[in-house]
Every structure is written in structure tokens, then in C-alpha cells.
Amino acid sequence: MYFEIIGEIEDVETIAIGGRIRDIMRLRRAFGHGRWRKLKGRAQVRLANGMIRVAEVHWYEAHGIGRKKMKIKRFLN
To answer: Does position 1 have pLDDT exceeding 70, yes or no?
Structure first.
């Protein structure tokens, strides 16, 4: 599903760090070693059809590597 984040991500919360992430080996192979964290937050997103909605988004990030594998978990409105 294609989407674009509009504005800032709010209410950011850490879900898991390092070895607690199920896909840690895949992340390290694909993007390199780093202090990987899985996070979630709330943001306005623009969907492929142009509709704008508020959604809960999840993603992985590491210092120096940035946000990777962002996905929408559920719509909040």
C-alpha cells in the first residue's frame, strides 16, 4: 500500500529494541548494523487514491540509517 506522511508523527512510542525485534537479522543484512528500534506513532497520511486519514504507523529506525519499512497498522478515524 502506497502512502505519504503529511506533517509530523505524534505520540511516538518505542515497541522493541535490538534483540527484541523479530526481524533484526533481516534489518542488519539489508541496511547494516546499528541500534535498531521498532517504533509506533500517529500521523496524517495521504493514500494512493488521494484520501487523507489519521493512522497508526509502525517503522524501524537506527541512528545514522534512518526510518525503514514504514507501514500502516490501523486507521484511527
So the answer is: no
